[in-house]
């Protein structure tokens, strides 16, 4: 069976816990792929209850006494999303051949260079019969992928009757099982670094191995920051007879959510390395892969399976989109944060979306609110931030931590707790009181302790608000994590206008002058480097000195690379901003 070509050259990456939790239901019928977070099974069960009722599908709850409840909740929701998408796609295909308006709107979503669009237009121009049109649609169109995402390090142990359960009941393990046992034929996106124990767990599920038709029912996507990481992780999977079907490259800083800075390696040079070494990556990985399949006694493909290279993080114009396709030959480009302003594609409550519409460059910043201790992209004055500020005025600190997905600290306790929890923060403050600090020092340390926020609730609440769920946690407001690129988009957008912006048919950008995505990322890295350098000057450290030297070297090489790229494109504005960055290092 020949694989149908993707309709679009972009995808919607995972955002938060709720913002893309139901995106496939909204956009997959148009051939747009999106990614669902399956971290929060509690939110997922509530969304499942909502959509099951709306589409008259079977639904049951799973109590916490059921040792496998988490995986079952995830499987049940994914199965229902799969059913809904298939039904909506079937109805959409029928309406394409019967309703002129639906067909015209669909054509307006397609890029001008699309072979699929040109073939469809040819059929229309020939006045093809409805039967011919229906057959062509059936043979050529496919829905967008219903992909899922887990952060690999969110793999906390779980307990029952105060007894620690085996690793297969850890958070990430059960999320993987929930996906693996679903009816979906799609991919799982693994982000936030390598987890060998979790990666090994993939071996338990047959859908990740190839059939005799060289088909993978379920695929693996690795979100990576550089080529070396891709090779290491790809080989790890290959040694277990598991194929990585896509390497999803993400900007270290110019993205939403958690920001994992590289050692000064910039996106352009990273993409260039993948482009130059893609065939080597395929060859070496396939060699290891076939040996592992042989050792397991499994079917061995005669040629390498497909392997895509995709990219996301900061892209904001049609020119940038096409530039990435042409220069780096990537297979798809992730457009994340701008889609937060598209109600037809993402789930964001009205109040939060208004905050995002008004957000300028100064309002979007890297914060320290994440309990994981990793820089986190934030927007000022979110409703969750307002809630937390009011609580602090009443001397109320921390979260009750009902979900515990980010509980990873054992400083005071045998079981992991979250640094945003009331329990942890109170222990920290009790310690602080014993240090006899000056009022200024005490306040600075107090603020550092209490700035941690409950991401589990804040990133999920938009889903509850939009589905009119009366859960108690809704009063805590919404925490949102857009990338800095959102500063240049300043209004609510229709799906049609956003897609047409991506393909250069219209321009939805606001009036704020927007730097090229590569330059914006570089400026963030320069600021990051200078901040680290300032800390080093006050507290010299050999290890940090080595890190900063490597960071500086990579930065300067990246700038030289960009100067050559923009020189060849005659982009004078980008060149001037690059030179300004050189002066500030």
What does it look like?
With 585 residues, the protein is of the alpha/beta class. Among the domains are: 160 residues, no CATH class; 97 residues, no CATH class; 71 residues. 47% of the residues lie in helices and 9% in strands. It contains 21 helices and twelve strands. The strands form three sheets. An eight-stranded parallel β-barrel has the order 1-2-3-6-7-8-9-10, surrounded by four helices. Strands 4-5 form a two-stranded antiparallel ribbon. The protein has a two-stranded antiparallel ribbon with strand order 11-12. α8 links the parallel β6 and β7. α3 crosses α7. The longest helix is centred in the first third of the chain and has 30 residues. It is globular. The mean pLDDT is 95.
> Which of globular, elongated, flat, extended, rod-shaped describes the shape?
globular
Strand content: 5-15%
Structural class: alpha/beta
**Strand runs, count:** 12
Mean pLDDT: 95
- Largest pleated sheet: 8 strands, parallel, barrel
Task: Determine the oligomeric state from the structure.
Answer: single chain
The percent of residues in helical segments reads: 40-55%
Which terms summarize this structure?
585 residues, alpha/beta, 8-stranded parallel beta barrel, two-stranded antiparallel ribbon, 21 helices, globular
Summarize the structure.
Among the domains are: about 1-150 and about 165-175, no CATH class; about 385-480, no CATH class; about 515-585. The protein is built from 21 helices and 12 strands.
